[in-house]
Specification:
The chain contains three helices and no strands. It has about 90 residues and is mainly alpha-helical. The termini are far apart. It has two domains: about 40 residues; about 45 residues.
Length: about 90
């Protein structure tokens, strides 16, 4: 028994949970679970989804694009500032 364990006999509880899981898998409920998983997989297959890898690649592309946009905006602001300074003033 672990000193901080809330259950006096954790091994017994683990064994009981395992036996219940085994019974569940052998019962008709186990077949229902498998059928539900298969149905869900079929429905998800029909959706327009992307893989995690593709999502991560597109996230990186977007981040690089945002960085380039920020650099271009900063450069544009710099060029506009220079053009404003080089413009002749009406008072001159």
């Amino acid at each position: 028994m672990k000193p901080n364990s809330p259950f006096p006999n954790a091994a017994f509880l683990n064994e009981a949970a395992q036996k219940l899981a085994d019974l569940f898998r052998q019962s008709p409920a186990g077949d229902i679970e498998q059928n539900l998983k298969a149905g869900l997989a079929a429905m998800l297959g029909k959706l327009d989804l992307v893989t995690r890898e593709e999502f991560d690649v597109q996230t990186e592309v977007l981040a690089r694009t945002r960085d380039k946009l920020a650099a271009l905006e900063a450069r544009l602001a710099q060029l506009e500032s220079q053009a404003e300074q080089e413009k002749p003033h009406p008072d001159a």
